[in-house]
Amino acid sequence: MQVVKVQKAxxxxxxxxxxxxxxxxxxEFSFIGRSNVGKSSLINLLTNKEGLARVSKTxxxxxEINFFKINERWSLVDLPGYGYAKVxxxxxxxxxEFVSEYLLNRESLLGTFVLIDSRHSPQKIDLQFVAWLVxxxxxxxxxxxxxxxxKAKVVQKNVQLFLEAMREFSDGSPIYxxxxxxxxxxxxxxxxxxxxxxxxx
Length: 201
Hints:
globular; 7 strands; 5 helices
């Protein structure tokens, strides 16, 4: 499998509305998940650049859409997590509306990586979000994170339970990856998937 070599990764800008997003000149891949799923850590792993995305112990810190340019060739887009802590209902609705608008209307978006915490059995909020993507026909792949934090048997059980739960609203199996920031597993596969998608763009 050919792997994307990340030689350059730069923060471009944060946006709080679709109008404020950078011009859609490059193909984009967005990353989203429940708060505290390990999204920032995964972005730093994929880009080999510690501190590129801010890692916080406080869930829900990402409240804008953050754009990173990779190799001057594509953009990695960090979306606000769903299920925020310590924000008002109005704020949460505004975030959700903005994210929905981006996912539905961003012409340069090739696909979304939905991060799922492999330590837990299927969570309703994750399934609802994936069902929404399926209903609207938006392309996505799943990344089960933190696989080093549980025994392999537990991880596999939770992954299979999630895939089974998806059968209620989706035909066929989704593309999915398993990752660990600690062991760096999944990095090669995720970047290989990106490379294949870029080659077809």
